[in-house]
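Thread: quick sanity check before group meeting

JM: Hey all, I'm pulling together slides for Thursday and realized we never actually wrote out the predicted structure for the chain we discussed last week. Dropping the sequence here so it's in one place. If anyone has concerns about the input, flag it before I start.
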Amino acid sequence: MAVKILVPVSGGKDSQAALKLALQQFKPEEVRGLFCDTQFEHPLTYSHVDRLRTLYGDIQIDTVCGGSVLEKSVKYGRFPGGGARHCTDELKIRETRIYCKALAEQQGGFEVWYGMRSKESPEREKRYAGKVCDEVYQPHEVMPSKYPQYLGKMGVRFRLVVLHWTDADVLNFLGGEENPLYAAGFPRVGCFPCLASGDQFKEKAFAFDEFGLEQKRKVIEISSQIGKSVWTSKGGVAR
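JM (edit): ok, ran it. Output follows.
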């Protein structure tokens, strides 16, 4: 049976909400998940993605990997941040684009249900201005600089199903089934920590558990190798 809905899942709550919505409206065999592994997620996130394969019905979640966050940091001689988020561009968006092209070539068009919310950041609010939850868009209409027009010509369409939801909307919808890192006090999950985030968030992640300490060790090692600090302000004290 052809895939009707592709849901990129990160282990975070917004993409999980998109997946749950899809499985409320379509058969499990018509829905597929896509996990882009940055090789920098917390073990709890990997376990949560595995759980999503059966949480709302048995579905296929494919994993793709275009390298690691730390490999990219060495390649470009800097950590992700500001306008240079090679982690997102090369490990998530590019891999999703490649996957979508291959799937469309195999079976024809389908919808991609993205768990993007305009209230998540000023940048996203600006990017998605004028967009609505219940409309479909060609990929390049949603992210003009990231997705080529040929995907639209192949029948790929994007739907921003939780675009105007709040944090509370998402958490209420998931009913406590979200990634346990949220309950541990992390407002966003994915890379652990997000190296483009503020220093306070990075310090919290590094001190969270043994995995966090190991992540800190790896990051400091790369920092010495590329001659760039992972800290973005004087607030980063755990050097």
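AS: nice. The mean pLDDT is 93. The first strand starts at residue 5 and ends at 8.
JM: adding both to the slides.
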